[in-house]
Specification:
Distance between the termini: 27 Å
Strand content: 25-35%
Oligomer: single chain
Shape: globular
Helix content: 25-40%
CATH topology of the largest domain: Rossmann fold
Strand order of the largest sheet: 2-1-3-6-12-13
Number of strands: 13
Number of helices: 6
């Protein structure tokens, strides 16, 4: 079996042991998508409500026959399941390669438990090999995007917009030695909607897919 399968299987086994009915949030990405397609239907009888982090995930869930709840501030979610682009030894994450990190973070923030599913190639000593995504409002993009150059000289703008119609930038060549401080610094920039560092809303547990099976890293 693939590492992706083993990570998804580990999350499925954890959820299968939970008493329901459960309110779940579902993230966006290849590993989360695999979990959603292969294992979420097997949990359907134990799910009361589902929240989606993106248009892409909503389409996948509706194609599988699930009904999606409309997110509102203060929504209570039992467990949020999502992947990551990088995970450091303290379970800080970089997310947002798919451009959905803002809504992913909203769901993670409202969840009692966050299960992150990855393969072992995503484990790093220091965040930053993967470009850091930043979502910026179009109205304030000129000044906000210039501020990103305080972190690296290599900043790029994506052609596609976020689901909420904002610009997406990536900061390259930037080693993030203090994820918590860096997350707060970037969030303080006027015009930044959100950044792909998850240090404030870290996972409760990371399920790491291996060649043979999986292992759990708990916070």
């Amino acid at each position: 079996m693939s590492k992706k399968f083993n990570a998804a299987l580990g999350a499925y086994k954890m959820l299968k042991e939970k008493k329901g009915p459960l309110v779940l949030g579902i993230g966006t990405g290849s590993t989360t998508g695999y979990f959603t397609k292969e294992f979420l239907p097997k949990l359907k009888e134990n799910i009361s409500d589902l929240y989606s982090s993106s248009k892409r995930t909503t389409k996948l869930l509706t194609d599988l026959g699930f009904t999606i709840c409309e997110y509102k501030p203060g929504s209570s979610i039992d467990i949020y399941i999502d992947g990551a682009d990088e995970v450091d030894s303290n379970l800080n994450l970089i997310k947002g390669g798919g451009g959905a990190h803002t809504n992913e973070k909203k769901l993670a923030k409202q969840s009692k438990e966050f299960i992150c599913i990855i393969d072992d190639k995503k484990l790093v000593n220091c965040l930053g090999d993967f470009p850091l995504p930043v979502e910026i409002s179009i109205e304030k993009s000129d000044s906000a995007s210039l501020s990103l150059y305080n972190f690296s000289k290599n900043v790029t703008k994506r052609e596609s917009l976020s689901d909420d119609g904002n610009y997406l930038y990536d900061i390259h060549d930037f080693k993030i030695e203090d994820p918590n401080m860096t997350e707060k610094q970037i969030l303080s920039i006027n015009g930044v909607v959100d950044v792909g560092i998850f240090s404030i809303n870290k996972p409760s547990v990371v399920v790491v897919g291996l060649e043979l099976g999986y292992r759990l890293i708990e916070s």
